Amino acid sequence: MQITDDKLRNLAKSIYDVGKLTFGALVLGSLLSPSPFKLKYFLGGLTFFIVCFAIAFMLDR
């Protein structure tokens, strides 16, 4: 199965969207939550977002 440029672009967009959702849920959620701030969720969400962004960037090149 050959992956065309359009399929790679769509895959990159999907991975980037997953990263944005993770960022919103874990990073912004931990900052806005009334419960105590949990650094591990913040750093985990931020790291996952950066990894997703990097993968999407490499696929879109």
Question: How would you portray this structure in words?
Answer:
With about 60 residues, the protein is an all-alpha fold. It has one domain. The protein is built from 2 helices and no strands. The protein is elongated, with a radius of gyration of 14 Å. The mean pLDDT is about 90.
Shape: elongated
How many individual β-strands? 0
Helix/strand structural class: mainly alpha
Please, what is the average pLDDT?
A: 88
Uncertain regions spanning at least 5 consecutive residues: none
Radius of gyration: 14 Å
Oligomer: single chain
Distance between the termini: 20 Å
Order of helices and strands: HH
Topology:
Blueprint: H1 5-32, H2 39-60
Summarize the structure.
With 61 residues, the protein is mainly alpha-helical. The protein is 82% helix and 0% strand.
